[in-house]
Amino acid sequence: MRKHKLDSIGDELSKGEKMVTLSFVFNDEKVKVSSQTRDELLEPMREHAKKYGITETGYGVFSMEGEYALGAIGRYAVHMSEEFMSYFDEILLDVNGNIEDCKQELIKARATIRV
Asked: What is the CATH number of the domain that holds 76?
């Protein structure tokens, strides 16, 4: 069976390591021609972060440590629409230094789950 990129991140968490960061790398051209600003695009994630105790450690960079970090951050990620994701060149998921661009995996996952 083929192992997905996100499976390796799950393997990291099962080892008991629990620092998770989600970073949004903007596609400036798409943002420029849209009717939204970068801050408007980040606002839903910022609201989610407040609700679940996630910290914005840099502009568009959200981090959490602890047993439920991947679940708290991932809960938002799986609800992002493909249109929303199109405003970013990359959506990087970092689990203890294991960094993956998960944008394409999230798009594929949305096709297989109901959100």
From this structure: 3.30.70
